[in-house]
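agent> Task received from the user: take the single chain below, predict its 3D structure, and emit structure tokens. No templates, no multimer pairing.
agent> Plan: (1) validate residues, (2) run structure prediction, (3) serialize to tokens, (4) report one or two observations.
agent> Step 1 OK, no nonstandard residues flagged.
tool_call: predict_structure(input=
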Amino acid sequence: MHIVVCMKQVPDSAQIRVHPVTNTIMRQGVPTIINPYDLFALEEALRLRDRLGGEVTVLTMGPPMAEDSLRKAMTYGADRAVLLTDRSFAGSDTLATSFALAAALAKIGEEFGVPPIVFTGKQTIDGDTAQVGPGIAKRLGLNQLTYVSRIADLDAAAGTITVERRAEGGVQVLSTRMPVLITMLEGVNEIRRGSLDDAYRAARATVIKWNAADAGITDLAKCGLRGSPTIVKKVFAPQARAEKVRQVPTTDLTTEALAASVMAELFKYQPGLEGELLRFPPASEPGHCKGQGAHHDRRTQADASRPGRHEARIAGAFQGLQACLGGRGVRARRGPSRLPGTAGRRAQAGRQAGGGTGGRHPLRR
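)
tool_result: status=success, residues=365
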């Protein structure tokens, strides 16, 4: 069985630079690595080859320096490496990249045999689009299985494959006929350690290099910047915030004291927060649920008109914070407020005027 793994050499994400004019990634002088997601695809391909026989070809599109990543893939056990490199590919977006790689895959099929399975990682860490794999499948008419977590069964004689695909809320079990394109998820396997023999073989091996003409690409208008309709308006690094993170000491503090300390810090550095808390609708008294109809509505409106009712909401917010910090429910207190400063005095005045903090407080919705 011939299996092809499409991989990409990407800049180390910690040292990425962006061209100020073209808004494309500057790769010269930046340390590069194999896209981490592609290593999971490579390992899965090598496991299938070890079990069923055949060979694994790795394919990448990039500058001449991408040969290093291909040789690295061969040290893991890949049998053949193909580098698609041409100045006309510079600046390609996902549409142009999938066009060039699809042409190279068709050429690989002519030269070394049509692959029933093409692997890619789920996405790359530089573009982060997850569009190239499905784009290749669409251009070549392959069945596509994305976000695959496990290959459950493969019948080479019948030409069928069954996989588990991670989806929202669960796992899908999908079965289809080959040829297929599979994008592998991260963490589904662990890349092997290459043997010494593979390292020697990779060092002596000849990496096949194709330009656009070698890959059978005749329409260069579909490659590079000319074939890339995606326009990056602006790329910039986020500015560091001037304010520092505030730490509230927690040593030897009870849950209530810690909640009071946090509330004091919030009101100190967010002066408008206290006013925002007063804008929440008043909470109903305990024992009066929403199902009590018009009588409940009249009672709620009457309670809202009591003096100090709105001020008591801050006490409700305090109780909610205390409940979160303590990991348990907190019942409404009728005793003196322990809120810091003005908030405590206002909440206490509200209770003395007939307000309360029962029911759901605004921060626990």
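agent> Step 4: summary for the user.
The longest helix spans residues 94-112.
agent> Done.
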